[in-house]
Design goal:
By secondary structure, this protein is mostly helical. About 75% of the residues lie in helices and about 0% in strands. The protein is built from 21 helices and 2 strands. It has a two-stranded antiparallel ribbon. It is globular and about 70 Å long.
């Protein structure tokens, strides 16, 4: 049996790292589209007259289908029942469909004042497209996690997961840095279209991976037959695990304090730090650079030395410091924003580098697809509700600002100002004080609260690990 194992593809370092590159680049593209609108908040509000609530409805759409329609739970069950290849290709197709709907939302010329079920038509269609895209993106995320466990278990698993996450963060950088420039040079719909076309490349890479996976399955066919098949009843075993819930809630709190930051950071940069809207995504785009290097590094440390729970706690504490800096109204210097984003990058490297490789230590491998799906489901509750809450609080604490922006847009349109020049003119009125800047301080208190709770659950997870002996503080590489 030992000789047979040595001949499998996953024992070949070149083969398993090639697989990692295939799936990681697909996730890079997915994250690029995920954040394609994030740096355009001020531009979109000035062009289409969206309120903070409208922005929150669209950016929070990540969880509408994944949470309310239980699509993430369904995706996890499909992954465990139908397998990696089916779920990977299906997720790629769903991402493309959702992205196409979102492109239509911005490319179509909706009538002024048009609504769907009482919601602005462009807002509704954009949110619908993003919701469908996120079904595919989250399905791809849990599938890729399962792929890495399959190909790297007992080897450099945390390093592999860290590398995949680092490349995904590079996708966020491409969106934060490139999307405003595409929108400025061409149009907002063009920025969305480029992301949509890139997703087609991601689907092709998933298909290439499937060819590799077929070869591996043939080599480990005997091992697969020995493993007891997944049953729906296994979900009960996952739900009863206290360690699972600690890591799932930590995931919810941590990611709710990071990904919504992408969605609201450009507005913060413009309104608090005085950054020009056309480059408002530049400072937040620094964040992925640290994660590209540090996430694999911290994953390597976890593989070699362990300390997974401690790494997660350290990351959560750093996040408390970061959002406190963004909250304090007196701190408005550009260098402060840059320093805080760099520190955020370190925090964003620490927690995921240890969190995702820790799940297989708590949950048996045959239940991993559903376990990851449940964690992503819980995470999506936060990613759906937090942006909506942030948008509502932003509007409530800045009464009258949206109305003044909408009035200015209507006046410029009546004067015949070209659509691509309206945003700059509205921003000009804000700079001279005729339209007030948004105050983000009350909004940012929500982030501070989330990070404090994340730290508490990090300590609870460490205590449960000590009690149950999961081995979260032990190295991943088996000697």
């Amino acid at each position: 049996m030992t000789d047979a194992i040595k001949k499998t593809l996953r024992e070949n370092a070149g083969a398993r790292w090639f697989v990692l590159i295939l799936v990681s680049v697909t996730m890079l593209i997915a994250y690029t589209f995920m954040e394609v609108l994030s740096p355009l908040q001020t531009l979109i509000q000035s062009t289409y007259g969206w309120s903070g609530t409208d922005w929150g409805l669209v950016t929070g759409a990540q969880g509408y289908l994944n949470v309310f329609a239980f699509m993430l739970i369904f995706a996890g069950i499909v992954l465990d029942k139908m397998g990696i290849k089916f779920t990977a290709v299906g997720s790629g197709l769903v991402m493309i469909i959702g992205a196409t709907i979102k492109y239509y939302a911005f490319a179509h010329n909706f009538e002024m004042g048009a609504t769907i079920i009482g919601i602005d038509a462009r807002v509704f269609v954009s949110a619908a497209g993003f919701a469908v895209f996120c079904v595919g993106a989250e399905g791809a995320g849990i599938t890729v996690s399962r792929i890495i466990v399959k190909w790297f278990k007992g080897k450099e698993m945390a390093l592999a997961m860290g590398t995949e996450m680092a490349l995904a963060r590079l996708g966020s950088f491409l969106a934060l840095f490139g999307s405003p420039r595409l929108a400025d040079a061409f149009s907002i719909p063009t920025a969305v279209l480029v992301g949509t076309l890139a997703l087609c490349i991601g689907l092709i890479l998933f298909i290439v991976y499937c060819v590799m996976d077929v070869k591996l399955d043939k080599q480990i066919e005997d091992e697969a037959e020995e493993e007891e098949p997944f049953k729906i009843a296994d979900l009960g075993l996952i739900i009863k695990s206290k360690g699972f819930w600690y890591i799932a809630i930590l995931c919810l709190l941590f990611y709710s304090a990071v990904f919504p930051f992408y969605k609201f950071s450009s507005g913060l940069m413009v309104n608090k730090f005085g950054i020009d809207p056309s480059t408002a995504g530049d400072i937040p785009s620094i964040l992925p650079f640290g994660t590209i290097l540090l996430t694999p590094l911290f994953g390597f440390v976890y593989d070699k030395l362990g300390k997974g729970a401690s790494i997660m706690i350290l990351g959560a504490v750093l996040l408390v410091i970061v959002h406190t800096i963004f909250y304090l109204p007196a701190l408005t210097a550009t260098w402060v924003a840059i320093a805080a984003v760099i520190l955020l990058g370190i925090a964003f490297s620490l927690v995921p580098s240890a969190m995702w490789p820790s799940v297989p230590k708590i949950i048996p491998e045959k239940q991993l697809g559903s376990a990851y799906a449940l964690i992503f489901y819980v995470q999506n509750i936060g990613l759906m509700l937090v942006p909506i809450l942030l948008g509502v609080v932003l509007d409530k604490t800045n009464p009258g600002v949206n109305e003044k922006i909408e009035t200015a847009i209507a006046n410029f349109r009546a004067e015949g100002v070209p659509a691509n020049e309206i945003s700059a003119k509205v921003q000009g009125l804000r700079e001279i004080g005729e339209i007030p800047m948004f105050d983000y301080s009350s909004t940012w208190l929500i982030f501070v609260g989330l990070t404090i709770l994340a730290t508490i659950f990090g300590f609870l997870l460490k205590a449960e690990d000590k009690k149950q002996g999961y081995g979260l503080e032990l190295p991943n590489i088996q000697k």
